Structures are given as C-alpha cells and as structure tokens.
TrEMBL record:
Protein name: Sulfatase N-terminal domain-containing protein
Species per Swiss-Prot/TrEMBL record: Agaribacillus aureus
Annotated compartments: Cell membrane
Membrane-spanning intervals of the chain: 7-26, 59-78, 90-113, 133-156, 168-188
Record carries keyword Acyltransferase: no
Length: 577
C-alpha cells in the first residue's frame, strides 16, 4: 500500500469515527472502547449477531452515509461541478454529525427517542441558556466545535483530491470489498433501520424518520379535543364540608424503584423506611405506599408532576407545551384549580438561586398551575452555601422555611408543591440533615457546582435519597396540624436504573379512616411499597385522590368521581373503576 493510500484510509477512518463519537462520549462510562466481550462469548450465531447489533456504543461501526458521500464524489471526480458536490457532501456530513450529537443526548440523557417537534423547545431553551450564561466551558465547547468543523473541512478537501488522483492497489481494493460486504450483510440483515446499536448506520434515514414522526405527532397534538377534560368538571364539582386538611405534595427528584430492585440498595432502603414508619406511628400518623408508573424516566420532571396533577399522561414535551399554551385547557379543573375552587391557597416552592438561567415563564406557570403565591429564592432569606442544580439552598432549609412562612400567615387550608433540587444526578452534596434546619444558613464556604456529566454512583445516590427522606419525614413527624402529605418520585435515577418507570408514592395523614381507603387501589399499609403488586400510574393518582377526599371530607360520600387508573383517555372511552 502506497503512502497516498495510507493517508486516504486514515482520512476515511477519522471521518467515520467522528460520526459515532457523540454516542461513545455520552455513554463512555457504560461502553467499552473495544467491543470484545460479546465477540468472545456465546455461540457462532450470537457472536455474528453481536458483530452487527450491540448496545455497546463503541466507535467500530460503519457509516453508510460516508460511503454514499465517497461514491458521490467519485462519480463527479472529473466534473466541473466537483467543487459544488464537495460542498454539498461536506454540508451533508456536518448535518449527520450534529444530528448524532442531538440524538445521543436525548436518548442517553433523557432516555427518550429523539423527535425534533417534541425536542425543539428544549433545544431552543438550552441554546438560550448557553448564550445568556457565559462560562469558560461554553467557550471551550464552541472552540471545540469550530475546531471539529475545521478538521472535517480539511479531511474532506483531502478526501476529494484523493478520490480524483489516487490509484487503488490490491490491498485497498480488498478493503473496499470487505467494507461493501459488511455493509451489504448489515443492510440485508437489518434493512435500513435506524437503531443506534447497529454496526452499519444510515443517519440520513434516521433524520427522515424523525421528520415523519414529528409531522405525525404535530397532527396528533393539534387534534386534541378538550371536551374529554371538561366532562370531568361536573364530577369534580363538590365542596368539602368537614375539616379540610392542608395538602403538601413533595416530588423527590430521582426517587425510583431501583431502591427496591437493587439488592444492596434495598437492604438499606428497607431498614430506613421501617424505622421511619415506626416513628410516624408514635406520632399517630398512618401511611399507605405503592409503586406508580411515571410517564418518563431519567429526565423531564415537569412532565411527571404535571401528569400527576392533570390526570393525563404527558410523556412528550410537545403535549406539555400544547396544554401550557392552550387557553382551552385552562377551563379544565385539574388538581390545583380544584383546590382553589375549594378555598385553598396554592403555594409553589422554587428554591433555585439563578432563576433567569432557566427562562422560567412565571406568568404562564402561575395561570397553568393555579398558583396563588410563589416562594422563590429571594423569599427564603438564605445566605449559606448553594448546592448543585440551580444552584439551590439545601432542600431541608427551603422546605422547612417555606412551611414556617406559610403557617405563620395562613388560617385557611393551603396546598404546597415542591420538587426537590438536591437529589439531581450525580447526587452530590448535601448528604446529611441538620438537627436544626436553620443552621444551614450559618454555614459559609464555596458553592458546590452542578456536575452534569459526572458519572453517578450508587453510594452517592443512596446518600442523596436518604437525605431527602430524612428531612421530609422529620417535617412530617413534627407536624401537629391537619396535614395530608403526598411524597412521590418523579422518575428513576438517570444512568443507574436500567429498566422500569416506577417510583414510590406515599400518602400520609393522621386520619386513619382516610388513609385506609387507599387499600382499594392497591396501596399497602406502611412506607415500604410492595413491588409484587401491579403498579399504579401517575395519571391515575388525581382521580384516586379526589375520590378519597370526597368520601371522607364531603357529606355526599355516595356519588364519588370515577377512578381513572389510566388517566383521561381521548374519545370518551374511559377505563373507570
């Protein structure tokens, strides 16, 4: 093989590696650089199959797009349009690389297949965050991308010249034959599929499928008939005439069923929950628990807690935005609108320090979630160390301060919603609670940054969840008022949970008759969920909660609202119980 041929194949190899680099970089902690394990184990058929289809996102794959690009340049090598063809090919190549970055991010971080119609609002907001918040990491990222474009341009220039001038020897022809055979076998075996696990990939086909899915989803979303929601308003039109409880809803970030599935985590979790259960009993609190299936896993917390409050499975960002922006939806009496109808004052705690970084549409959220009063960082009187996501004060401080603030001024029943901030991946500090929650405000030191790309560990996850459970149940134990607590997970922990969308849900109150009613839906007594039972669904919890509230706090305890275990279903064909 000549020196020119070696340079040609080096350029091809470099361009091919770049196509698959995003998937490898986003999953490098779970993927082996050399995919040898699957090739060395099992029978011949299993090894052959692994050669063409594997979930180890290594770089040893072939880009069908790059082969097509080479063929295109080769066919036009003597044409006066060659320079235009090369520019087109370069643009095509850069598009597939950018698409690979986007698809790897959404699949591996959000653990959801990419749909551009669904993902565009998140992408737009992400770009805005990057532009508005200067950091050296942003500069390095932009510099790295520009360097990549420069390298790719140089490689393409050399590739085009080589395809015009090079004369292939027998060795190069043998490599070409092997590549074509490998691609032909892969395409025959899997056709032109767009799975990222395939060793032969056609990214242009993935892009086309994404466009088709986006158009179909757009059509589906735009056809939503809100009459299915309005019909429930009549069922929900009742009043409390007994002692109304305060309702405190805490969604614990990343509180997932992995705690029950993982042997080492379960032993610790079981011990923790049984201890907390005993302490609750001493204070005359009763609890019921179950697993509930979230609409998402590993990301999209807002989809999960909104699904819970509206009684409809919002598993896609496009659905959420459609509901958020559609004035017709505001006529529907979801949980917080219903509470407002009952005379409750709805509080919502958002403790993150740098709110502007996340471009939160406060007015829109206030209307959508029927918020009477926000409790934000500026209301928390906090000067201590900030942690992780947000960054934010310790959740123990934020929730205790908020409850004290509310109780000091409210005589009427209230509702409070909070999704925790400190238990975001990678589950770093804080890990311990303070005996006196206000002591957090006295600590001084450097803020603890949010390390998005750091690999989470089971040990840190266990500590982070124990911290959340410790202070939450400490708050419950110290409650002497008529409070109903709902503690629930938003989704499974990213990167640590490999399967399942279920999260624990606990309903806790001093009203034993009220609590006992949840046995009818599959919840079990205590704080330890029974994973052998069929899980509930986040979209079914609202109708379940309303039934039991009406049964216990309204004189009309006969005509109960329908229980919709699968949430609201379009078309009026509801699965009721």
């Amino acid at each position: 093989m000549t020196k020119k041929e070696l340079k040609f194949w080096a350029a091809i190899m470099a361009l091919n590696i770049i196509v698959f680099l995003p998937w490898y970089l986003f999953s490098y902690t779970e993927s082996d650089f050399l995919p040898l394990e699957g090739l060395m184990e099992g029978g011949i058929y299993d090894r052959f199959k692994y050669l063409f289809n594997r979930d180890n996102y290594d770089l040893f794959r072939l880009s069908f797009d790059l082969v097509l690009i080479c063929i295109l340049i080769y066919l036009f090598r003597f044409s006066h349009r060659l320079s235009h063809v090369v520019k087109f090919a370069l643009t095509y190549y850069l598009i597939i690389v950018i698409y690979q970055i986007y698809s790897a991010f959404f699949n591996l971080i959000y653990q959801a297949p990419e749909i551009i119609y669904n993902d565009f609002p998140l992408l737009k907001n992400g770009v805005k965050i990057v532009i508005e918040n200067f950091s050296w990491l942003n500069v390095l990222s932009l510099g790295g991308f520009l360097a990549l474009v420069f390298i790719v341009t140089k490689l393409f220039t050399y590739l085009a010249r080589s395809l015009v001038n090079i004369r292939m020897g027998y060795f190069s022809k043998a490599i070409i034959a092997l590549i074509l055979l490998f691609i032909f076998t892969g395409l025959i075996r899997y056709r032109i599929k767009t799975k990222p696990s395939l060793a032969v990939q056609f990214v242009a086909a993935s892009i086309w499928n994404n466009v088709k899915r986006s158009l179909e989803l757009k059509e589906t979303v735009e056809k939503i008939d809100y009459d299915d929601f309005y019909e429930l308003n009549d069922q929900y039109d009742f009043r409390f005439d007994k002692n109304r409880p305060n309702i405190i809803i805490v969604f614990i970030e990343s509180y997932g069923r992995v705690l029950l599935d993982h042997k080492d985590l379960y032993l610790s979790y079981q011990k923790t929950m049984l201890e907390k259960q005993s302490k609750l009993a001493l204070k005359d609190f009763f609890g019921m628990s179950a697993l509930s299936t979230a609409p998402v896993t590993g990301g999209g917390s807002w989809l999960s807690y909104t699904t819970f409050s509206v009684g409809y499975r919002l598993h896609l960002q496009s659905l959420f935005f459609n509901f958020l922006k559609n004035k017709e939806f505001l006529k529907y009496r979801h949980l917080y609108k219903w509470l407002k109808h009952q005379g409750y004052k709805n509080y919502r705690l958002n403790s993150q320090y740098d709110e502007n970084k996340f471009s939160i549409p406060w007015n829109q959220y206030t209307s959508f979630y029927a918020v009477d009063e926000w409790v934000r960082f500026k209301n928390l009187d906090y000067q201590g160390i900030l942690y992780g996501f947000g960054p934010s004060p310790p959740d123990q401080y934020a929730l205790n301060y908020t409850l004290e603030l509310i109780r000091n001024k409210e005589q009427d029943p209230f509702s409070l919603f909070f999704i925790t901030k400190n238990s975001h991946t990678p589950f770093l500090l804080p890990h311990t609670t303070m005996k006196d929650w206000s002591a957090w405000n006295e600590l001084r030191g450097e803020n603890q940054p949010y390390r998005f790309f750091q690999k989470p560990t089971l040990d840190n996850y266990e500590k982070a969840i124990n911290y959340q459970l410790d202070y939450i149940f400490q708050i419950i134990n110290n409650s002497s008022q008529n409070d109903l607590f709902i503690v629930i997970g938003d989704h499974q922990p990213p990167a640590l949970a490999t399967e399942g969308f279920e999260t624990p849900v606990h309903i806790i109150s001093k009203d034993s008759a009220f609590i006992k009613g949840f046995e009818n839906y599959g919840l079990t007594s205590g704080l330890l969920p029974d994973k052998t039972k069929t899980p509930l669904k986040h979209e079914g919890l609202y109708s379940m909660l309303l039934r039991e509230l009406k049964r216990n706090y309204s004189s009309d305890s006969v005509s109960l609202p329908d229980y919709l275990p699968n949430g609201i279903i379009f078309g009026g064909d509801q699965d009721t119980k």
